[in-house]
Amino acid sequence: MKVIQEKLPDSQVGLEIEIPATASKKVYENVVKKLTRTVNIPGFRRGKVPRAIVIQRLGQSYIKATAIEELIDDSIKAAVKQEELAIIGNFSLRSDMEDLLQAFDPEAPLTIKVAADVFPEAEYEPESYKTITTQAEEIEYSADAVDQWLKGEQEKRATLVPVEDRPAAMGDVAIVDYAAFELAEGGESGEAIAEVKGSDFEVTLEEGRFVAGIVDGIAGMAIDETKLIPVTFPEDYPLEAVAGENVLFEIKLKEIKFRELPELDDDFAEDVSEFETLAELRADLEKQFQEQAEERTNNNIKAAIKGKLGELFTGALPETMIKQECDRLVAQTAMELERMGLDVSQLFRQGDDMLQTLKNNARPEAIANLKTQLMIGAIAKEEKIEPTEAEIKERCDELRREFKGEKIDESRLLSFVESSLVEDKVLNLLKEWATVELLPEGSLSQTEETDDNDDGEGAPIDVEADSEA
User: Fold this and answer.
1) Chain-centroid distance, C-alpha 374
2) Residue 80: enclosing H or E segment and its boundaries?
3) Least packed by Cβ within 10 Å: which of 39, 368, 386, 405?
């Protein structure tokens, strides 16, 4: 089959396909035979209609159009295989159908023109990826991190001890009865607010707990003391009866409890970890927090470099590819909303306009993602970067252990592992070449941060004695 390729704008390829006369005749005859078997014509039994009657009744134009459609489908599949094309999406017909109908002769060749999106080659200035300049936040290790971790573990194991010989103080736990009243003229209490009333309510006396003003009002009270505390509820308070209102709270303090923390000693270390001494635990925690800070800085650097890659891309992206990435991002957003407990179906029930709005909003991110992915692939090819079989196996085994018990699509797992390993290797190489200015944590905008940062900042600390981290 004769095929002529033409490079079109926006990462499309045009194909001019010459269909041999033998193929045209074979498809045409098959169409006629199929119609004679299936068409219903009064006066003839099904499958027994003469060929001439079928052609006369249905018309040459209908039969030709049916044959041409099959020829187009068959020839496109054959051309793609013959030319080894990486096609994205479906082909569109560039030839005029009326012209094809006029030109079609089962005894002669037929030439058709079609176009389709193809997987684009990354276009960029040669070796531009070797001179990337960017900024990233440096995460510095803080010695306070160890003390904060230990204090958190102490508080988890705190014992509430009753207090009888002093007033309530910040840090205590107060057990109270409370009721709310409208604020009348002169600051006096008015009618009771039925929706705001409780007994034996536990309040931790810390800033930000309960309604603003209540905690400060309770601090200093003695057991069995009753006190009126003026409070202004925020406008967005969930209880409509008091939202935005000035209210008098009547508080009766019934009990005071003090949080008694366990001693920070070797026994405590054994209780919270596999270490025998507090010194060993501290040393291990310090090592982990230092490594964590280094890892987060490294992730920030890689994210900054990755963000610059898309800017180096100068080629065109096929529309089909952009739409597919938009669909993926919208689906990802929907899954995240579902994990948050939101009813996604209610969102999509608002109609196609809402779905299209979500896709339109995702378009800039989709384009940026695709440009970055194409650049990573191009750099890997240029620098001959690929993971070893051992690296692939090791990472696949790690993920299988992590998702043990869940159904895993092995082909998708392999594809994900290979692409993630290639990306990591490419970014590590670019990091060696890049000029990165490290800035203090928090100095860059949120949009320049990466989700990888969250993995570092919120990573659990391992206090197993045989841990390497």
Assistant:
1) 19
2) helix 60-83
3) 405
Of 14, 15, 8, 6, the C-alpha closest to 79 is 15
Residue 452, pLDDT above cutoff 80: no
Would you list the DSSP string of 357-415?
A: HHHHHHHHHHHHHHHHHHHHHHHHHHTT----HHHHHHHHHHHHHHTTTS---HHHHHH
Let me know if residue 59 belongs to a domain: yes
Q: Is pLDDT above 80 for 430?
A: yes
Predicted confidence band of residue 298 (pLDDT cuts 50, 70, 90): very high
The answer to whether residues 100 and 166 belong to one domain is: no
302 and 233 both lie in a single domain: no
Question: Residue 17 sits in which domain range?
Answer: 2-118
Distance from C-alpha of 337 to C-alpha of 329, rounded to nearest angstrom: 12
Nearest CA to 153 among 268, 286, 257?
268
- The predicted structure's pLDDT at residue 463: 57
Q: Is residue 406 part of a domain?
A: yes
Long-range CB contact pairs, 365-368, < 8 A, 24+: 365/329, 366/322, 366/325, 366/326, 366/328, 366/329, 367/317, 367/322, 367/325, 368/310
Above 80 in pLDDT, residue 346?
A: no
Please give the biggest Cα pair distance in the chain: 112
Least confident of 56-60, 63-67, 174-178: 56-60
Specify whether 164 is located in the same domain as 194.
yes
Q: Which residue has the tokens 């989700």?
A: 451
Of the chain, the end-to-end C-alpha distance in Å amounts to 62
Strand order in the sheet with 110-118: 2-8, 12-19, 110-118, 87-93
CA-to-CA distance for 74 and 373, rounded, in angstroms? 33
The reported pLDDT for the residue numbered 321 is: 92
Within a domain: 367: yes
53, containing H or E segment:
helix 51-58
Q: Domain count of the chain?
A: 3
Q: How many Cα atoms occupy the beta-carbon half-sphere of 360 within 13 Å?
A: 6
Q: Which helix (H) or strand (E) holds 255?
A: strand 246-260
